[in-house]
Specification:
about 20% strand; 5-stranded mixed sheet; 7-stranded mixed sheet; about 450 residues; Competence CoiA family protein; 7 helices; CoiA_nuc; binds zinc ion; rod-shaped
Length: about 450
């Protein structure tokens, strides 16, 4: 089906126009006898005027035997309906609409060409079948080559090329034949400055949209990189769009928002820079403080070490002095003891000398004779001196042995009795000498034996 046909005399006629665009009545071509030979502008095959089942829509249908390749013959009813609705919207906006208008050189064929009073053209394409981005871009460029704007319109649910070329998605409400029942639901946005984002507009009818586009209230706008998340009205849903129809006011608002955002980002960057600098300064101060603290500790530690070394040396010196003092005292004591011993030895020797002075050799022999006799009577053994020395260890007396056993000591000096071994028997001449011995309290009287010998040598005269 198509809305246009070629009249053999009048040329191009349009079924969507009251006078078919040529001052001709519908009844002049519909079911006339004889039949007027109308042909398809696309393939040249014969067509005939027709009414839809409810007689609402006038169109042309290919005669039997049509070419299977004619675009117009295979276009769907939906496609035709949308074209007709677009034409109606254009005409309401005060522009004329030419359906299925081919380029003079055949490079394009507009579904609906809007033409202003002063001859300006804008193509409206109803695109319902799938098309690649490359193909739709190429077809758009062909219009641009002829300085003609184009808007692609789809009533499909999913329109993948909405951001590839200037385009909108539309949806009809019942009845779909009235243009004002068609609403634009994608491809038109407004900028909400407060939210800082684009919001899809879904309350504009197709005729309103077409009028706004034709009077240049709307332009196709490449959305700023940061604003491509488009909010759907009345929900939190988000879609991504890089291109949209919009008003200059919204475009200005986006630019203003972007400028404001950049100012805020610059301010934020400046704040962060200041914060970083402040932090760096704080760290530097902290590092300096730490360095000073380390230095202080180092100095303190060195000082403590020095003091410790001084104290150690002092203690060492004190200890050395003490040790020397002790050594000196010890030597002094030894010296004193040595003096005392020598003095004692001297006293004892002097005393022993006096003790022995009064004893002549004869008297000693006499005494020895008695002691020997005593040893013989007691042990049947002669007690003999080991030497003639009067030894200190025997208190400067004469030690007598019977064999290897000490028998006793003859005439020990009373001054040195403490040198004698315990229980040593002592032999003296008489009671006087015994008294001298026992008077010291150092010797038990039982151990002292005397022989009542006279103190003085008996003269030969007696
Ligand atoms: Zn055809």
């Amino acid at each position: 089906m198509s809305f246009t046909a070629l009249h053999p005399e009048l040329g191009r006629i349009d079924a969507t126009l009251i006078d078919l665009g040529q001052g001709l009545e519908w009844e002049g071509i519909y079911r006339t006898r004889p039949r007027i030979r109308l042909t398809c502008p696309e393939c040249g095959h014969g067509v005939h005027a027709k009414l839809s089942p409810r007689r609402r829509t006038r169109y042309f249908a290919h005669d039997p035997g049509r070419s299977p390749h004619c675009h117009l013959s295979v276009e769907s009813a939906d496609h035709h309906l949308l074209k007709r609705v677009l034409a109606e919207a254009i005409r309401r906006a005060g522009w004329s609409a030419e359906l299925e208008l081919p380029a003079p050189d055949g490079s394009w064929r507009a579904d609906v060409m809007a033409i202003s009073a002063d001859g300006e053209q804008m193509a409206w394409e109803a695109q319902l079948s799938p098309i690649t981005d490359g193909d739709i871009q190429m077809r758009t460029n062909r219009y641009y080559d002829d300085d003609i704007d184009v808007c692609w319109v789809s009533s499909r649910d999913r329109v993948p090329w909405l951001c590839t070329v200037p385009a909108i998605a539309v949806a009809p409400a019942d009845p779909p034949t009235a243009a004002e029942r068609w609403m634009v639901h994608d491809g038109l946005t407004r900028f909400d400055y407060k939210c800082g984002s684009w919001i899809q507009v879904d309350d504009v009818t197709l005729p309103t949209f077409v009028r706004w586009v034709l009077d240049r209230s709307l332009t196709i706008h490449p959305i700023g990189r940061r604003y491509r998340r488009i909010r759907l009205p009345g929900s939190n849903a988000i879609i991504r769009r890089s291109v949209s129809w919009s008003t200059q006011r919204s475009i200005d608002a986006e630019a203003k928002h972007e400028a404001m955002r950049q100012r805020q980002e610059a301010a934020k960057a400046a704040r962060e820079k200041r914060a970083r600098e402040a932090e760096e300064h704080r760290k530097q101060v902290e590092r300096e403080r730490q360095r000073q603290e380390d230095e202080r500790r180092r100095v303190e530690s060195e000082k403590r070490h020095r003091e410790f070394m001084i104290e150690s040396k002092r203690r060492q010196a004190a200890w050395e002095a003490q040790r020397r003092e002790q050594e000196r005292k010890r030597q002094e004591q030894e010296r004193q003891e040595e003096l005392a011993r020598r003095e004692r030895d001297h006293r004892e020797q002097t005393a022993a000398q006096q003790w022995w002075e009064g004893v002549s050799a004869a008297q000693l022999a006499e005494l020895m004779g008695h002691v020997t006799a005593l040893s013989i009577s007691e042990h049947a053994s002669r007690a003999l001196p080991r030497s003639d020395e009067r030894e200190r260890e025997y208190a400067y007396g004469l030690a007598l042995y019977t064999g290897r056993r000490l028998f006793g000591v003859v005439m020990p000096c009373p001054h040195s009795l403490d040198r004698l071994p315990n229980s040593t028997r002592i032999f003296v001449r008489n009671a006087r000498e015994k008294a001298c011995i026992t008077a010291t309290g150092l010797v038990n009287a039982d151990l002292v034996t005397h022989f009542d010998l006279p103190d003085h040598e008996q003269t030969s005269l007696l």
